[in-house]
């Protein structure tokens, strides 16, 4: 064995106690790539964590058994790997128990065939009962059980056939007894079909993305559909989004309001300092950072915005943790800026950049997603001027920052061209009413409009 | 209806009951801020506050004792044992106090407590995170015990347990948490305690069990039907105490060939009692010796993966046992 190249199956590991499956995100190694022990071979996505699976051996990547986007049960093989050095590690156990397992079945099967009649004269209580009930002479009944035993069903079939011919059931049974061992070796037509269709799917995914390309959560077409429609698999993330949105909309009575903010001064301020900031800090100084600061300060003045409905009470959170809605091509995630009230504008800008990078690289940790108390969504970044957001359950409100648009505005009875932006707020009307939200929004507006060329970002 | 995981169904049941009844509260280790080690109670403290979702010290005897006292006083506590393996310090409270209060006080006092505990192995958890303790409590009159297999039953049985006027042990299977996904109604319904459920109709063999192993039995039954034309009748006990004698007897009568499966070890397990009921009630309708496929009688779940695999039931093991019985 050691002279030949040894091929092992790599299986999906148990990533967390309660996980039973994980989705292959991306293959990081292609068939033929040399793999060292501990090299990551693929990324996997679960609803708890995204992780990389390291190789347990030195070797060469073999066939990929699971496609990107495919959900694989824990313990199921995901790929094959050729070992470089022939090691005696007892890893390939898969084949052995299967062969061993087939043995006892074979024995019982052959002994259940025509030759063995050792159990022919032993009748179970059920057989006795039925024979007495129907007046059957058991000597006339053909036994299809183990060792020629007459089973309960044999008697029933005998009775049904008018007590003459052996039951058709019996044929099925004996035919089955003659060749049941074929079953594990040759899969039934159903399994073959399933395998074929899987094989048909696989090559498409095999070519796979490589390390250099940007990872995306795969949208895999599911089989089925026809000329007029096709199906897309629901990824774990999509599923989570769907559940959360549904819960929020069905439980929280949403209220909505919008105000308009004059951000002309802010635009000037940012234009003045953004290049130097980028040079010094290495990250972009976005409008969003200024908005977050304005929102956080307003929440400090109106802490009820930072609360959760608990049926018999309202729980007000002391920490202000801002959930930031960050979209990718096909999902939206809400990573959290923890204790946002303790950060200055520069700190917020850096944090926004970090979280957005992590989201787009698919590197968010569970911890990055937890503890949010109020959500801000920068909807202006994709050109919207008006949105009606869904609250990030179980928070009390969500605020959107729309596109900055130059508009004619009347100031002191004169018309001026100013940079204007809308802020929209969806609120949990069980907790919040119009007056308090109006004041809160007014405070955000004041904060935004009081930025000037003198404002310090540090 | 919404497709949800077994664990979501359990969480939803607690949430709905807490909304419905102010006297319902949850207590246990890490159930509050952390939301439970499996996230079973996630979000409940945020919604209902720390007075209704209590983080307790690591003292199971105290968790059960406090819950029992509160229950006798008129509250409806749900006491969580983080793993059923940790439940043993609480057995004295559960068996000597909760189970006996009504009897001892001549029906004057009652104890509507629910003790939730995750059972079962196969999660690489080893000795302290894998046990099935059903048999420890099984022979104690005064306790009700439920062990759901489906997400639908998990929600319905937990709601029934919370509303039950007497102590109920709710054994949820931790391997089922994410494995079992199905349609669960998002409105109020209960699954009555003491009623078994036919999961699959069949005529060749009868499989009786509860909790996770039924998952293997259902898969095996499907394969046996396709590959060999064997038709299996499968009964989910759902409630272990009281057992649904009528359902057990009629399921046994249906085929005369009975296989009983559970992960708890064979000796003195629930299967022994089910087997005895069948022997008492329908001996003359049996067509084969009653079979049991259970965890082996060894002291603990091994941590070594091959040995854990050896210990655990699986689809292949259940299928093999079903085939043997069908061929008999």
From TrEMBL, chain A:
Its EC number is 2.3.1.-. PROSITE patterns: BIOTINYL_LIPOYL, LIPOYL, PSBD. The keyword Transferase applies. Residues 98-122 are annotated as: Disordered. It comes from the Bacteria. Residues 7-82 form the Lipoyl-binding domain. Belongs to the 2-oxoacid dehydrogenase family. This is Dihydrolipoamide acetyltransferase component of pyruvate dehydrogenase complex. It comes from Paenibacillus brevis. The lineage of its organism: Bacteria, Bacillati, Bacillota, Bacilli, Bacillales.
TrEMBL record, chain B:
Residues 4-179 form the Transketolase-like pyrimidine-binding domain. The keyword Ligase does not apply. This is Alpha-ketoacid dehydrogenase subunit beta. Keywords: Thiamine pyrophosphate. SMART domains: Transket_pyr. InterPro entries: Transketolase-like_Pyr-bd, Transketolase_C. The keyword Transferase does not apply. Its cofactor is thiamine diphosphate.
């Amino acid at each position: 064995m050691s002279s030949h190249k040894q091929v092992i199956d790599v299986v999906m590991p148990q990533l967390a106690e309660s996980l039973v499956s994980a989705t292959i995100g991306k293959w990081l190694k292609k068939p033929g790539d040399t793999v060292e022990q501990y090299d990551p071979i693929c990324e996997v996505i679960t609803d708890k964590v995204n992780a990389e699976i390291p190789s347990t051996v030195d070797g060469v990547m073999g066939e990929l058994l699971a496609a990107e986007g495919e959900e694989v049960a824990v313990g199921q093989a995901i790929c094959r790997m050729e070992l470089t050095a022939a090691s005696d590690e007892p890893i390939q156990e898969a084949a052995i128990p299967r062969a061993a397992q087939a043995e006892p079945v074979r024995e019982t099967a052959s002994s259940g065939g025509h030759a063995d009649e050792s159990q022919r004269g032993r009748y179970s209580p059920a057989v006795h009962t039925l024979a007495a009930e129907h007046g059957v002479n058991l000597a006339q009944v053909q036994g299809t059980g183990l060792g020629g035993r007459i089973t309960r069903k044999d008697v029933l079939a005998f009775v049904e056939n008018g007590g003459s011919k052996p039951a058709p059931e019996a044929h099925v049974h004996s035919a089955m007894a003659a060749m049941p061992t074929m079953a594990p070796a040759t899969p039934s037509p159903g399994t073959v079909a399933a395998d074929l269709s899987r094989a048909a799917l696989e090559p498409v995914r095999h070519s796979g993305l490589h390390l250099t390309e940007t990872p995306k959560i795969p949208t895999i077409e599911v089989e089925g559909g026809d000329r007029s429609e096709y199906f897309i698999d629901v990824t774990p993330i999509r599923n989570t989004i769907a559940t959360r949105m549904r819960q929020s909309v069905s439980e929280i009575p949403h209220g909505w309001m919008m105000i308009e903010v004059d951000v002309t001064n802010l635009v000037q301020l940012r234009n003045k300092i953004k290049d130097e900031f980028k040079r010094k800090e290495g990250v972009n100084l976005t409008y969003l950072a200024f908005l977050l600061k304005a929102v956080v300060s307003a929440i400090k003045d109106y802490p009820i915005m930072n609360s959760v409905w608990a049926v018999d009470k309202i729980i007000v959170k002391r920490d202000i943790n801002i959930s930031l809605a960050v979209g990718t091509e096909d999902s939206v995630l809400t990573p959290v800026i923890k204790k946002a009230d303790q950060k200055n504008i520069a700190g917020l800008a850096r944090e926004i950049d970090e979280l957005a990078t992590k989201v787009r690289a698919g590197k968010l940790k569970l911890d990055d997603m937890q503890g949010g108390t109020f959500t801000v969504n920068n909807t202006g970044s994709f050109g919207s001027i008006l949105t009606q957001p869904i609250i990030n359950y179980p928070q009390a409100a969500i605020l959107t920052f729309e596109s900055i648009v130059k508009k004619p505005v009347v100031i002191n009875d004169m018309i001026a061209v100013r940079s204007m932006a809308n802020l929209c707020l969806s609120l949990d009307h069980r907790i919040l009413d119009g007056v308090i939200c109006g004041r809160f929004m007014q405070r955000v507006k004041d904060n935004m409009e009081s930025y000037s060329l003198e404002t310090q970002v540090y | 209806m919404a497709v949800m995981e077994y664990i979501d169904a359990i969480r939803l049941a607690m949430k709905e009951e807490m909304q419905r009844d102010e006297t319902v509260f949850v207590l246990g280790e890490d159930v509050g801020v952390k939301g439970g080690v499996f996230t079973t109670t996630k979000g409940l403290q945020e919604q209902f506050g720390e007075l209704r979702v209590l983080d307790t010290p690591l003292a199971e005897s105290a968790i059960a004792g406090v819950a029992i006292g509160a229950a006798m006083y008129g509250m409806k506590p749900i006491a969580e044992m983080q793993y059923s393996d940790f439940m043993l310090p609480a057995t004295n409270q559960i068996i000597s106090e909760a189970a006996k209060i009504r009897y001892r006080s001549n029906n004057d006092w009652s104890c509507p407590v629910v003790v939730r505990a995750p059972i079962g192995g196969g999660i690489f958890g080893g000795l302290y995170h894998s046990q099935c303790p059903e048999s420890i409590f099984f022979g104690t009159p005064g306790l009700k015990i439920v062990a759901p297999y489906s997400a639908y039953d998990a929600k319905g049985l937990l709601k029934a347990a919370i509303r039950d006027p007497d102590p109920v042990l709710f054994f949820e299977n931790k391997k089922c948490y994410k494995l079992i996904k199905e349609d669960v109604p998002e409105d109020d319904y209960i699954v009555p305690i003491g009623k078994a459920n036919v999961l699959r109709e069949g005529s060749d063999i009868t499989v009786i069990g509860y909790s996770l192993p039924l998952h293997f039995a259902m898969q095996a039954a499907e394969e046996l039907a396709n590959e060999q034309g064997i038709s299996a009748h499968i009964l989910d006990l759902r409630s272990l105490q009281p057992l649904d004698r009528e359902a057990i007897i009629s399921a046994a009568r249906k085929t005369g060939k009975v296989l009983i499966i559970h992960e708890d070890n064979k000796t003195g397990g629930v299967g022994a009692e089910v087997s005895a009921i069948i022997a008492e009630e329908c001996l003359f309708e049996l067509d084969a010796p009653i079979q049991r496929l259970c965890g082996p009688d060894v002291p603990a779940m091994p941590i070594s993966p091959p040995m854990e695999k050896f210990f655990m039931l699986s689809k292949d093991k259940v299928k093999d046992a079903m085939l043997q019985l069908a061929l008999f």
